Amino acid sequence: MGLLDDLKKEAETLKNQEAAKTQSLKANSAAVDRALRKTFQYMNELFKQLNVVKPPCTLVYDLLTVGKIDGLTQSDYRIEFRTSQRDNSEHYENVTINFKRSKAEQLTVKRDAEQIERFRDLLWQNNMRFTSEPFKNDRRVTTHEVFKINCEVICGADVVGDYDNGVIRFKLKNVEDFGPTIYTLEPDTVTDKALEELAKLFIGKDSNFKDLNRRPASSGNATGQFVRPQMKVPQYAANPTPPAQEEEKKSGLFGALKSVFKKPNE
To answer: Rounded mean pLDDT of 115-132?
Structure first.
């Protein structure tokens, strides 16, 4: 076998490898698109029911240095999707979900000068809505600030199709607790059963969704943090003796919605 024959054989091998790679990418692309479409269809139907039922949330949030927030009601479930063109056809890129857990109460918290900025950052990172009033001394220097925090936790998820790696990434925010959690699933594992386990997370119930994760779930990632807007920094007076902090402290699911959310005394 001569040099030309060797080159022809090598070229044919490379062509076959490239064709196999292209075919694999197309198959992965189709699987990712199907999984995203299925997620949207399931959750869109679920949220129609939840917006009527407005179920109570059994999950208790613990806001650092403030305390526990419980007795919340879930409402305002919203969902939308975004598409793009891949291989001359429309594919789902991501599904965005938002809802809130809230009650008609406010927490009132006082923070001295040296604690204000750190506490404000904490509220922004957890996407907590609040108002605040600074108090100044005779020299017009801020000595402390009183925060009124709405008992309203803004929750959401961004379900993203990773077409390059052929996986679905579920980026949750304030769903299982304050902060982000990311799950990665193979497209073929996004079944009705898997989506029901995800739905349980969205209604604050015990769930086995994490068992479907392809790798250990990550949390505390900056990807899921909320961005604090730029604000003018006031002048503060230091307080050498900070006060003591307060104690920190589609199938079966659709059919059982009303019974699942009945209150214990009903």
So the answer is: 96
pLDDT value of position 69: 96
Which amino acid is residue 231, in one-letter code?
M
DSSP string, the chain: --HHHHHHHHHHHHHHHHHHHHHHHHHHHHHHHHHHHHHHHHHHHHHHHHHHH--EE---EEETTTEEE--EEEEEEEEEEEEEEETTEEEEEEEEEEEEEEEEEEEEEEEEHHHHHHHHHHHHHTT--EEEEEEE-TTS-EEEEEEEEEEEEEEEEEEEEETTTTEEEEEEESSSSSSEEEEEE-GGG--HHHHHHHHHHHTT----GGGG-SSPPEES-GGGPPPPPP-PPPPB---SSPPPPPP----HHHHTHHHHT--TT-
Q: In the numeric block, which tokens belong to residue 161?
A: 């199709």
Is 93:82 a contact under the CB 8 Å cutoff? yes
- Between 185 and 253, name the one with better pLDDT: 185
pLDDT digits (tens, 9 = 90+) for 3-41: 777 777 777 777 766 666 655 566 689 999 999 999 999
